[in-house]
């Protein structure tokens, strides 16, 4: 390979000129046993000492690469894991730091800058590696690059670009090119660079793995987009097809503030231009708008010309003709007018329209043509009617009126705040419209992500629209006002104006920012004295922007890594980690700062003494259970882990370590109530969008999807509780929204199906408060089903509901009811009696429970099915005990033998 001069001796004699700084370094025992000079060599490898293990600190190394005239030096940062301490300088001639020519600094190299290669056009390249402090100098990326140090880079000496087009290799790779899920290597003879993927990942750039696997159709992206790993195993991104965009390809692609590709065209992104037409550019309509309502698009350079002529017989009142005669005359006149205009205007059929028949047999029509043509058009009609005929119609040759006004155009669309807009701020979107002289003719519709906004559905916040009068420049302003923006308001807003059956639109992108949701690993951990603990904290939403700041508190006090024993390192692409040697129980708090403020998350480290630990502090052993790796946990403590991969990232699952007897411990069942699957999260997102007035789905369709999800998904312990919480949000919306009784009953019926399915899985609900909520939801959704009915029976697999509405008279009712319909004056404001018979609700309650009576405790067991009777008025106001409601239960006696297991 040529001459390689390596070792400390070469540096002492050739590269290192002594400086005053060196005296300090020598006193600190700087490591120098590294470096080399490369001459007469085509390619090579430069590696930090002990790579990829830790190198000595402080350290100072230098490598000098020499190239023959006509060649250039190319460095490839195949495995480069430094944030600081590495720089490159090129020279025309170099002996040492004091004797050199043509010095040019190429700058410091940091992996933060995502550098893949460096080209030196001078014959000598000096690489300097100097680190005096290990504080935050190493690249750290989850999950595979948390314990790597230094670098292993390659170089090649190739012909200059003046002699050859090939300078930089097209197959070069780096830790970035390999998606942080593989290593970049060169073959032994340097004829190929490639990514060697870590287990579970594959692809030429290691871009596929467990969460993005096209071989098994695992894809988190929507609308035929495909996902890939981007910056490590925790960050994926979606590549959308040409029709969709967004983080998950969730919205139709609209070219914001652009027009059809036609210069000065008012046809915005929903239009396309016909190949053979100058005036009839057709509209590709947004969802919810038919082609009949948006027939054509028109050019900004055109004007609307309004022409009036008079038929010869002024005594004919064209306005009061019968329909068939009216259409006959109208169609005949249109053909006659078109025969006049067509030779001049070419294709006119979609723009010509007779507007009205005025008294005195005056016909007014309009069409669209370029500005400045009024004299030509007037002469054209004067010539056509100079003989008093227009086709087969006799006309007054002396009567012709011509006006013009600007054609419909959406001039601009602007938002009141600069993106990204913080949540809860007010937002106004202004759409500037040029159009007809009469505002009554202009109809403005608003869309979000291609779907028509339903202003009636937004019942929890104010979202309004208005059309303001013309300003001094002759423009109308259509306003969309949102009182408090939500993160789900992010997307494309479109203003569509319709005037004389022509439509134009423009769109603007709105981005809403929200406070970060910090993730910390571990959330809780039990260790023995002297053990090292690594705590990582990051915000997934910052993985692409990388704008958040990270700090740590230790027991509530700001941690200073310079003074404390902890090692603090930045994580890539975002985050921070602490390496802590534990001697006593401590709480670390991760602080994440953004433009919206600071949020925090705790990690509690419980430290046990090593002496007699197994006797004094028994542990529940670490294990994998329900797809979660549980850490060893002290008795009466709680282990907290992130939810498994099938769930949203920010969720937590908890599990207690219980004392079984005086010396033995056991794990309790885990609590998955905070774990939300991706499918359920999408259902919740759809309903949140629905409540804001967005999307083309309905409450019923969302509840149908929820029913299908519950029936197809195996619920883990307590996982049903998040579904109960969601239905508690759905209920008041259905109670307040204006919709038909049949639609309301249908939606409520699907909610009851979901509640019944939850009772199929023992353990899906554990907390008594949530079980009580389930009970109340069954009653309330049943009342919605019976809103316009006198008597209703609702049968589900796990409960049976009867509702009867009565007037104020005394009634004696026996359940199950045999009720005949009777007349009640106001069914809505009548009193409803609800009885619920449960099949298996007792399975979700404790087998034994105590009730204190005076000074003693009485133990109870449930041996019967559960029954509820409740009284409601209008229709969900619970009357309670202030009325004379008396309930008598007749129980059929039977013997029960309890079998202990």
From TrEMBL:
Pfam families per the UniProt record, alphabetical: CUB (PF00431), ig (PF00047)
Entry keyword annotation includes Cytoplasm: no
Bridged cysteine pairs (disulfide): 34-61, 178-195, 197-206, 221-238, 240-249
GO CC entries: membrane
Keyword Disulfide bond carried by entry: yes
Keywords assigned: Disulfide bond, EGF-like domain
GO biological process entries: adenylate cyclase-activating G protein-coupled receptor signaling pathway
Annotated CUB domain residues: 34-158
Domain Ig-like: 406-513, 516-606
Occurrences of domain EGF-like (ranges): 169-207, 208-250
One MF term in the entry's GO annotations: G protein-coupled receptor activity
Name used for this protein in its record: Uncharacterized protein
Organism listed in the record: Dinothrombium tinctorium
């Amino acid at each position: 390979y040529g001459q390689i001069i390596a070792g400390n001796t070469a540096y002492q004699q050739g590269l290192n000129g002594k400086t005053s700084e060196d005296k300090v370094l020598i006193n600190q025992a700087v490591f120098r046993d590294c470096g080399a000079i490369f001459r007469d060599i085509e390619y090579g490898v430069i590696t930090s000492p002990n790579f990829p293990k830790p190198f000595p600190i402080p350290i100072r190394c230098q490598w000098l690469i020499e190239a023959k005239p006509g060649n250039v030096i190319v460095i490839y940062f195949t495995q480069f894991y430094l944030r600081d301490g590495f720089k490159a300088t090129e020279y025309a001639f170099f002996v040492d730091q004091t004797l050199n020519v043509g010095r040019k600094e190429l700058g410091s190299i940091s992996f933060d800058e995502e550098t893949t290669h460096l080209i030196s056009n001078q014959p000598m390249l000096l690489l300097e590696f100097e680190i005096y402090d290990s504080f935050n100098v190493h690249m750290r990326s989850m999950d595979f690059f948390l314990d790597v140090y230094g670098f292993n880079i390659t170089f090649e000496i190739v012909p200059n670009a003046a002699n050859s087009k090939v300078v930089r290799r097209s197959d070069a790779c780096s830790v970035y090119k390999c998606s942080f899920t593989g290593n970049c290597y060169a073959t032994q003879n340097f004829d190929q660079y490639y990514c060697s993927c870590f287990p579970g990942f594959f692809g030429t750039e290691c871009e596929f793995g467990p969460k993005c696997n096209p071989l098994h159709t695992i894809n988190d992206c929507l609308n035929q987009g495909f996902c890939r790993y981007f910056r490590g195993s925790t960050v994926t991104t979606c590549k959308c097809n040409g029709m969709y965009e967004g983080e998950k390809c969730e919205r139709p692609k609209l070219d914001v503030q652009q027009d059809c590709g036609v210069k000065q065209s008012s046809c915005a992104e929903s239009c396309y231009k016909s190949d053979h037409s100058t005036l009839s550019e057709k509209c590709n309509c947004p969802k919810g708008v038919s082609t009949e309502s948006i027939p054509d698009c028109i050019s900004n350079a055109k004007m609307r010309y309004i022409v009036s002529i008079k038929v010869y017989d002024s005594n004919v009142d064209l306005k009061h003709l019968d329909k068939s005669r009216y259409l006959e005359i109208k169609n005949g006149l249109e053909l006659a007018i078109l025969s006049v205009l067509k030779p001049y205007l070419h294709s006119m059929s979609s723009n010509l329209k007779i507007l009205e028949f005025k008294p005195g047999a005056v016909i007014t029509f309009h069409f669209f043509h370029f500005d400045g043509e009024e004299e030509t058009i007037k002469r054209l009609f004067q010539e056509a009617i100079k003989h008093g005929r227009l086709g087969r119609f006799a006309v007054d040759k002396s009567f012709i009126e011509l006006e013009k006004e600007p054609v419909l155009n959406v001039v601009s669309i602007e938002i009141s705040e600069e993106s990204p807009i913080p949540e809860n701020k007010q937002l106004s979107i202004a759409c500037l419209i040029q159009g007809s002289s009469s505002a009554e003719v202009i109809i403005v519709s608003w869309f979000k992500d291609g779907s028509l906004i339903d202003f009636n559905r937004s019942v929890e916040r104010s979202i309004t629209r208005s059309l303001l009068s013309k300003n001094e420049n002759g423009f109308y302003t259509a306003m969309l006002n949102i009182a408090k923006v939500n993160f789900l308001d992010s997307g494309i807003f479109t203003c569509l104006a319709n005037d004389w059956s022509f439509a134009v639109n423009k769109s603007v992108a709105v981005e809403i920012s929200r406070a970060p949701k910090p993730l910390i690993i571990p959330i809780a951990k039990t260790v023995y004295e002297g053990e090292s603990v690594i705590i990582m904290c990051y915000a997934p939403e910052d993985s692409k922007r990388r704008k958040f700041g990270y700090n740590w508190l230790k027991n509530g006090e700001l941690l200073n890594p310079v003074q404390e024993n902890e090692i603090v390192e930045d994580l890539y692409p975002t985050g921070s980690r602490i390496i802590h040697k534990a001697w006593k129980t401590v709480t670390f708090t991760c602080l994440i700062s953004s433009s919206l403020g600071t949020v925090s998350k705790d990690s509690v480290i419980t430290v046990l003494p090593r002496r007699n630990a197994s006797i004094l502090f028994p542990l529940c052993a670490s294990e994998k259970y329900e797809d979660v790796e549980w850490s060893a946990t002290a008795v009466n403590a709680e282990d907290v882990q992130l939810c498994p991969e099938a769930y949203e990232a920010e969720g937590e699952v908890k599990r207690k370590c219980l004392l079984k007897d005086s010396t033995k411990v056991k794990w309790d069942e885990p609590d998955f109530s905070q774990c939300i699957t991706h499918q359920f999260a999408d259902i919740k997102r759809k309903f949140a969008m629905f409540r804001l007035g967005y999307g083309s789905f309905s409450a019923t369709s969302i509840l149908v999807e929820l029913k299908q999800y519950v029936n197809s998904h195996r619920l883990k312990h307590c996982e049903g509780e998040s579904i109960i919480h969601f239905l508690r949000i759905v209920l008041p919306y259905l109670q307040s929204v204006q919709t038909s009784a049949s639609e309301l009953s249908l939606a409520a019926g699907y909610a009851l199906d979901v509640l019944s399915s939850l009772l199929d899985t023992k353990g899906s609900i554990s907390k008594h408060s949530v079980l009580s909520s389930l009970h109340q939801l069954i009653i309330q959704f049943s009342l919605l089903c019976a809103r316009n009915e006198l008597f209703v029976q609702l049968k589900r697999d796990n409960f049976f509901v009867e509702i009867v509405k009565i007037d104020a008279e005394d009634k004696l009712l026996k359940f199950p009811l045999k009720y005949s319909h009777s007349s009640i004056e106001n069914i809505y404001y009548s009193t409803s009696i609800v009885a619920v018979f449960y099949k298996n609700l007792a399975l979700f309650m404790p087998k034994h429970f105590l009730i204190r009576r005076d000074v003693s405790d009485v133990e109870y067991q449930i041996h019967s099915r559960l029954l509820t009777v409740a009284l409601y008025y209008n229709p969900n106001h619970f009357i309670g005990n202030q009325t004379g409601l008396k309930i008598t239960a007749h129980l059929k006696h039977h013997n029960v033998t309890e079998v202990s297991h």
